[in-house]
């Protein structure tokens, strides 16, 4: 089942200084699969994610959820129940515990009193368990490591019970082992929670090894899509990222220095 579909989508900015960033994009991010958005710096990955999340309108075309609903047609409360977002913005929850932060994901479902009901507490606990962070529940959020914080923020997103989870550079502040672990976690969550997971990343080598599907946004505003193997074999990755003697080895899924050039 398709969790997100782009239909001839064009993204960018309006106004006197408006510009088109990427045009005529058609792609799908399937439920139960981890889809990675990659591309060179300045290609427009963040702009595309902001459009997909409903934070800015498209210039034309549509971004639709599984039932055909256009994201731009949803009010904020309805959108928060269907699309969850994890950004790289710093989070300062004061003295809140990890459990309290995860429970913030229940906000779209709360009554005007703002009190958590039993089912809200149960869903929060299930979300922490899903990201393997139950043992962090009682710890102050500000005491957690970067990797632990990312798990709790992912739990907050899961507590929203979304059908689409969008993450912008979720591994940017993590060390190498934590990056591998977190991407593996996202792939598992997509399958186990039956949601579509779309993330942007600069971690090309990890993405090519651990993602199910890849959206490659090129510098000219076009996009290639497919499995990691398909994009590597077709030359799209090399065309976008090879620089001088640095090239992407399509068999090793790693950058290498070409000693012969």
From TrEMBL:
Any Pfam family matching the protein: ABC_tran
Listed CDD domains: ABC_Iron-Siderophores_B12_Hemin
GO molecular function terms attached to this record: ATP binding
Cited InterPro entries: AAA+_ATPase, ABC_transporter-like_ATP-bd, P-loop_NTPase
Keywords (A to Z) from UniProt: ATP-binding, Nucleotide-binding
Ranges where the ABC transporter domain occurs: 4-244
Protein name (record): ABC transporter ATP-binding protein
């Amino acid at each position: 089942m398709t969790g997100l579909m782009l239909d001839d989508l064009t993204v960018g900015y309006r106004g006197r200084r408006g510009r088109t960033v990427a045009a005529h994009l058609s792609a799908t991010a399937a439920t139960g699969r981890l889809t990675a958005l990659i591309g060179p710096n300045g290609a427009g990955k963040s702009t595309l994610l902001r459009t997909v999340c409903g934070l800015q309108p498209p210039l034309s075309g549509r971004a639709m959820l599984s039932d055909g609903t256009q994201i731009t047609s949803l009010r904020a409360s309805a959108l928060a129940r269907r699309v969850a977002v994890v950004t790289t913005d710093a989070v300062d929850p004061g003295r809140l515990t990890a459990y309290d932060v995860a429970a913030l994901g229940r906000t779209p479902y709360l009554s005007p009193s703002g009190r958590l009901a039993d089912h809200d507490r149960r869903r929060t606990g299930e979300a922490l368990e899903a990201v393997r962070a139950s043992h962090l529940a009682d710890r102050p959020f500000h005491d957690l490591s970067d990797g632990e914080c990312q798990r709790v923020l992912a739990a907050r997103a899961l507590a929203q019970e979304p059908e689409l989870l969008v993450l912008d550079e979720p591994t940017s502040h993590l060390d190498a082992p934590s990056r591998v672990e977190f991407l593996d976690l996202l792939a598992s969550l997509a399958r186990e929670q039956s949601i579509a997971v779309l993330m942007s990343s600069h971690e090309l080598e990890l993405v090519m090894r651990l993602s199910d599907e890849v959206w490659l946004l090129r510098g000219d505003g076009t996009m290639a899509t497919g499995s990691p193997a398909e994009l590597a074999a077709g030359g799209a990755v090399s065309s976008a990222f090879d620089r001088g003697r640095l090239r992407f080895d399509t068999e090793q899924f790693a950058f290498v220095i070409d000693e012969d050039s």
